[in-house]
Amino acid sequence: MADDPYALLGVPRTATEQQIRSAFLKLAKTSHPDVNPGDKKAEERFKAISGAHDLLSDPVKRARFDRGEIDATGQDTPSRGYHRPGGAQYANGDMDDILASMFGQARGAARPQRGADQRYTLNVSFLDAARGATQRLALPGGGDLNVQIPPGTETGQTLRLRGKGRPGTAGGPAGDALIEITVLSHPLFRRDGRDIHLDLPISLGESVLGGRVAVPTVAGTVTMAIPPGSDSGTKLRLRGKGLPGADGQSPGDAYATLRVVVGPADDALRDFLRDWAPGQAFDPRSGLPKE
User: Which is more confidently placed, 224 or 288?
Assistant: First the structure.
């Protein structure tokens, strides 16, 4: 080794630790034995700059060298140093990962890398999103994915299919497929959290007399009692007939808002209404503001 480690690394005696480190890495890129296989001179150069870096990167050794207490060979072998076969001493242990990464690529030993995630969008019918279903997603480049739609899925929710993204490299795992859901509207049902709302047409007779009517829900048709004298706008609840609960939550409810539909009136109804005189005068517009 030359007498002056500063000269070997090409740095001044006032160099900082970072400058010393940078100078060593720059020289190592051209002198490392892995880059120069079989070149004895390159191995000797690398041995020399490694020894110089080993000495100057240790504050205690550097101070002793600057005071003339030790020579450039360094009488105490660094405890963190190590030797390759043949006796060539390399850099401190904290440089191992940097050099392995730098020269591993030069040898073609690429590290395994996870594949990239792939993003898709998927339109789902209202009832499939409410009840849960399996839907096939056609991929742009060919092929398809079977997507499991959990019950109660809503617009904006992203489903993750692990390992269905781009393949990894050098044995790394594949990425994931991320599927953003758009739930399509329904002609009857409206969603509010886990509750379902619908408008339910009833006849004039059902409105006045009451009765039991069939009501569609996301889980199927059920029977509901209409109280006598129910007006349009009356909201009736079907407990537990909304969307299924998640993570131990109770299911939502269904709310049916009644809409009275008179329909075609026959002669008997018209005659009855002409002759009918209620016991008390009733003005359905009595609550409207007066000008």
Answer: 224
